[in-house]
Structure formats: structure tokens, C-alpha cells
Amino acid sequence: KAKSELKDFLHINDFDRDTILKILDRAAEVKALLKSGERTFLPFKGKTMAMIFAKPSMRTRVSFETGFFLLGGHAIYLGPDDIQMGKREETRDVARVLSRYNDIIMARVFAHQDILDLAKYATVPVINGLTDYNHPCQIMADALTIIEHVGQLEGTKVVYVGDGNNIVHSWLLLASIIPFHFVCACPKGYDPDAKTVAKAQQTGISKIEITNDPKEAVKGADVVYSDVWASMGQKEEATHRRQAFQGFQVDENLIKLAGPKAYFMHCLPAERGVEVTDGVIEAPNSIVFPQAENRMHAQNAIMLHLLGV
Ligand code: CP
Ligand code: NVA
């Protein structure tokens, strides 16, 4: 099947470059429509979405639920205690039952295999709302935000400082289809998945660097990006990680090294005073809130694409 016709959105590079850019254009178009107060575009009328959350969420839950509603649909929130996918019931059964009620499924899970299984057995589109491995909806929103603020994604320098986690994997997968300069500065032992790095580098599409030197990395950045040092599921490692990540806080000095054109981005939630200072988040070049807003607009466009409307 052509990449533009795939049923699900599980990894950013499930789509090709043209499809990604088309979805981002659509996101901007529907964003403008919703921001104008227009409420008569209801392509999801009569449609329902099941949202499975094995982990907590503010942005993902509220942006999906609100976006689907604003475009005419109805979204159902299923929290960690509700269906207990893989515990109370096997994933393949959840997939087939929900497919008989709903037009689309969105899920946030721990093991990446769970989202793959869900998509395999579901007969409706499945959207990845974050796994331990990646977070494609976040990076679509980030790309939209960069296009709005920097002007374009192609050719920009994005420097991620912190843990080589699910966010980094999605950046790497985006860099394997759209050309930009991606640098991940992480402490030794906290690098992103080596296979994902190698594969993204082998495509030759983007300049991709993994380094342990944040000060050198941020020079000339268009965007300095940060995320928590202990992701969901790693909170018991938080104290140990605070030691290991010394020197990787995005503070005023690091932003100064980046230079005057650098925007600050963070997928949120942020731990102020840990991976980023309060001053950096509150500074005029911080675009974390437009970035959070764009989750909804990017996801609306992803759903329009998957549902073919
Ligand atoms: N950025 C993000 O996914 O936020 P939530 O965990 O609140 O959904
Ligand atoms: N890396 C973070 C992202 C939260 C949106 C986590 O997985 O917890």
C-alpha cells in the first residue's frame, strides 16, 4: 500500500514527506477556520473515537477530545482503570471490539508493541498518542509550530537537550523523511535507541548528530527543545537521573549560547528548575504554549487524513 494510504498513524515516517506536508497544510487551514469562530465544519458528525490511556495526560486527552468534538464527533475517554488493555482483556480483543463501535481509536500505552498489536487487529484507524518508544502526534504539532514561527522546517537547526527518549525517536523519524538539522545532546548512557539513530542517518535526508556536549550543540540553533529527564514509567529513577543529567538543564546561559534567533520549545509537562529554568519557559522566545495549542490542530488534520474527509 502507498504510504499515503496507510490505515494508522503509529510513527511519523509511516507517511512520506508529501503526505506529512499536506497534513501540516490542512492543520493550518482548519486551525484558521476554528480560530475564526467558524463552527459549521463538522466532518466528524456521526463519528465516535475511543481514546485509551494507560498513562496520565492533559494535552493529549483534552486536545483529542476537544478537536474531535469541535469537528462534529464524539470522543470517549478510557482511563488506566477502565479497560486495562492487556490485563483485564487481551489487546487483540480490545482492538476488535472497539472497532465495532468506533470509527477511530487513539491510544497512549507503555510498550510500543501494544500499539502495534492494537493497529494490527483493529479494523479502524489507530493513532499513537505516545508509547515508551515514540510520540508522533507531538512532533507533528512541533513541526507545525516551527513552520509558523521560523517560517519552514526544512533547513532549520533543532537542538534537543536531555534524555534520548520517545520524543527524540520521533524527531529522528521525522528527520528521516524531511531534511533539517537535528542534534540530540544527552548524557552518556541516556542516548536514543541506536538502531533508530542509525536508520535515520542512513537515509541521508537530514544532518543528524548525537552528542554529550549541550554547550557546543546549541550554537546557532533555531530551536532549543527540552523534555523531562524521567518519563512516565521512570519516575522511580528521577533522583538518580537528576544527578546523571547535571549540566543538561536548559537555563539562561545555555539559551544565550544558542543565540538570539533561538526559540525554546518543550512538549510539556515541564519540571521547572529541573530540565529547564522558570526564566527560560517564561521568556519571550519561549513558544511552549502555541506549541501545546498546535497539538489539537495537528491531530485534527491527522484524523481528517485517516478518515478520508
Ligand atoms: N505533551 C503531552 O503529550 O502532554 P500530556 O502528557 O499532558 O498529554
Ligand atoms: N517523555 C515524556 C513525554 C511526555 C509528553 C514521557 O514519556 O513521559
Automatic annotation (TrEMBL):
Chief localization: plastid
Domain (Aspartate/ornithine carbamoyltransferase Asp/Orn-binding): residue spans on this chain: 154-305
Domain of life: Eukaryota
Broad EC category: transferase
Compartment list: Plastid, Chloroplast
Gene Ontology biological process terms in this record: citrulline biosynthetic process; L-arginine biosynthetic process via ornithine
Keyword Acyltransferase among UniProt keywords: no
Domain (Aspartate/ornithine carbamoyltransferase carbamoyl-P binding): residue spans on this chain: 7-148
GO cellular component terms, semicolon-separated: chloroplast
Keywords (A to Z) from UniProt: Amino-acid biosynthesis, Arginine biosynthesis, Chloroplast, Plastid, Transferase, Transit peptide
Recorded family membership: Belongs to the aspartate/ornithine carbamoyltransferase superfamily. OTCase family.
Protein name: ornithine carbamoyltransferase
Residues shown, of full length: 68 to 376 of 376
